[in-house]
Fold each of these.
Amino acid sequence: MPDEASDVEKGERLKVLRAVEALLRMQRLVLDHFPDGDMEGVTVLLTVAAGSLSVVHRDGAAHDQMMQGPLPREWFRPISGRAVAASCGLPRETVRRRLEALEKAGEIERVEGGYQLCYNVLSRRQNLDFARGLVREFEFVHRMIERCDLP
């Protein structure tokens, strides 16, 4: 049967299916580990985490340090509420409310220039189990998508 959409590459449909399944498993992972939270709150938390630790992508010493243990607090970078909203695509008022709730919960802290992840937050509550599950899922989906290229 000829493919009606000639711009779809061989195996691409299967790769998309694998990616969608992985995204749904990740969503379930979020809901399982943050039952009182919501997807927007977790999105804001992860956005602040990525912004706070972004120095790792530009600084070899920060990268090496993070491979060994937590970054020193002074290496964290603040991210403004406006930047969080722009990054994750949520309305600023929604982000503001989620930032306040995350600060109250002790996940993030308000500092000069915005918000940053609290120090060593990975070892708190369910965060480490969630992070490990997230990494396992990415490793799994990578293998599944690679299999789509096998003859």
Amino acid sequence: MATMNDTPRRWFEQPPGFDARPRKPGADEGPDLWLRCPGCRAALFVEVLAESLQVCPHCEHHFPIDAPSRLESLCDPGSITVHDTGLTSVDALGFVDSKPYDRRLQASMAATGQNEGYVAASATLAGIPVEIGSMDFRFLGGSMGSVVGEMITRQIERGIQRRVPVIVVSASGGARMQEGVLSLMQMAKTSAALAELKDVARMPYVSVLTNPTTGGVAASFSMLGDLLLAEPKSLVGFAGPRVIRETIGQELPEGFQTAEYLLEHGMIDRIVPRAQLRAVLAQTLAQLLRLPAPSVG
């Protein structure tokens, strides 16, 4: 006669001697497989989100995207040649807030695998040669220090030398406070290089504004494009809405400093969803350069 001990163990029962204990603090839980969309609250599978260029398939909320992935999404496969990867920032001022600046740099390098918060490259976009670069918000909030400013300036200078269009994708909290006036100087330097691109090379400069584009970046090269494109609902402005509200003591208009607000008030030229950006850039550059209509795959 069968006894209770002879009954096969059911799938939800633990084997004899199993010791259930809480997971130790700091234990490796593996990569997160799901994200919650802040726009519609839907649960999104990370791999599916990556296939859609980090855009929610339900509400089209645009998640941040890193600089290498941004360039790969815009440029022709195999055409990207990255420049200036050996440039790194230094702590010239010995700046310390909650932690030393050099430790912040080391942490960002380890987290991103990059030396700085900007990636600049020579590439082709639908067969059109371009100098293209993208800021990376993962690296100290995409802030513009002396190295980022130098990388952007060098990119523009390559555009002048090669006589090709320049594209910059901005995602930044502004000038890097840990470098003080050295960071602020980059506003003038990048702007002067863009003036030369226009006056000497007579090549177009396209600025793509993403969430967020603020501070010294918004006050310099990001708003100087011959064509200003923006991703939907991006925050674009110099100071943040909270700072402005507290300064002037007034409530701000609904949607203030969003891409939609700027488009309505004539500050930008077009809002372009991320999935359409490559095609729009290709068509626009072809028109500006008087080239045949490109084929965008």
Amino acid sequence: MIKVIVPTELNDLTLGQMQSYEKLVSKVEDHNEARLLMLSAFCNIDIMQYEKMNAAQTTSVAERVEAVLNTKPRHELFFTLNGVRMGFIPNLDEITMGEFVDLENLGSNTDNWHKVMAILYRPVTKTFGNRYSIESYKGLESANMYKEMPLGVALGAMLFFWNLGRDLLADTLRYLREAAKDEALSTHFQKSGVGLEQYTDSLKETLDALTKSQPYPYTPASIGSVTKATSEN
């Protein structure tokens, strides 16, 4: 039997470990093989060491890791990365066009999540009471270092962003339904070649898909859908 260091909370793991696991397991259908890959990714167990682990130990460790991965993450405004305090974008209503375009282009691929985090979190420059400011957005050149950020922080941010997009889409849909009798609005949609009813039906389908989807842990939120919903508000 070998000694295994088992994580006790999401923030014991890194975003990069999750990305590695997702890549390893993407085409694996066998449950036992997937479990071994999980231990390799999250417990840093070399594949050659599996021979020294008995079935009971493997099952016990795997169940403990799975319990951690299924912990609901919290949205954290701050975390520390390489000794630097990082802060979440203070006001998403004031997101810049550069930030928005990059978020839109990144899509929902888990491989890009460290880049999403590089947009949502940046070094804190000033604090004043409960308020703070962060560095201006400078692109994704330093995004790779975000692979080392705590997994719980990353998942909490993704869940928050997913819920934000869903709520904005719901608000848009409610507004359009209330405005359905507005002749000027209906005329606008007719001129654009899209009927108001057709447009609201399309939004409802998108909202239903977002509501039914599970943003965590094994079916990541669609960042593309979230930013699309934001842009349509």
